TrEMBL record:
It holds the Pfam family BSP. Residues 1-17 form the signal peptide. Keywords: Signal. This is Basic secretory protease. Coiled coil: none annotated.
Length: 222
């Protein structure tokens, strides 16, 4: 009986993976009320579960050579705070103030925000003393959002920006260009970031320096 139980538990853990919990900590605020009416915590948890699967697939979590994070539980909360959202450790925080004031398709926007933040949960950042540029970290998160077709606009933006690591849309579209030339580039870059950061990763993975790739990219889309 004991052995049988052990097998059941192990299987449960493998299939269950990471769980996601959620709470709206400010349900009475305008943003908290609006959040509950357009999406709700259950709706957000469902999107976050999809986002987690999408991001893990994008980072090739099924591949044995991918260094993987092991996370038991991700905590999502809607909070009375400024800004849009952020991820720290295994927590994702969404701003009720942002929800209250956003104009446009709020559900679509929130889906995109949640995919972006879920990417931060699973991506590697390099290491202390060898951390990836923040613009690259944000660019990878928006790259996932772009791939999920959730609100990173390509129209008129491809080829924009003055530095490859400017972040967000600029870097996401540049990474998308490199990834089109070298499929799995972003997944491979993320694997390398487990060990720290080096600009040479671009050279290692594509045969061209990041400056050369950026210059090719600018030339192609200017
Ligand atoms: Zn971010």
């Amino acid at each position: 009986m004991a052995i049988f139980l052990l097998i059941i538990l192990a299987t449960f853990q493998v299939t269950q993976g990471t769980s996601i919990t959620g709470a709206n900590t400010t349900p009475e605020s305008p943003g908290g009320q609006r959040f509950n009416s357009v999406m709700g915590v259950d709706g957000a948890l469902s999107i976050l579960a999809d986002a987690m699967a999408f991001v893990q697939l994008g980072f090739e979590y099924r591949s044995p050579d991918t260094p993987k994070k092991e996370i038991d539980t991700i905590h999502f909360t809607v909070d009375d705070m400024a800004g849009v959202a952020y991820a720290i450790g295994v927590e994702i925080h969404l701003s009720a103030q942002f929800v209250a004031t956003f104009t446009g398709d709020l559900v679509f926007e929130l889906r995109g925000v949640l995919y972006h933040e879920m990417t931060h949960i699973w991506q590697w950042f390099g290491k202390d003393g060898s951390r990836a540029p923040q613009g690259l970290i944000e660019g990878i998160a928006d790259f996932m959002r772009l791939k999920a077709k959730l609100g990173v606009s390509t129209n008129g933006f491809v080829g924009s920006g003055s530095h490859w690591d400017e972040g967000y849309t600029v870097t996401a579209l540049f990474l998308n260009y490199v990834n089109d030339l070298h499929p799995s580039f972003v997944a491979e870059l993320n694997k390398k970031l487990y060990d720290g950061w080096s600009e040479n990763y671009f050279q290692d993975l594509t045969g061209k320096s990041v400056d050369q790739l950026w210059s090719d990219y600018k030339q192609k889309f200017q």
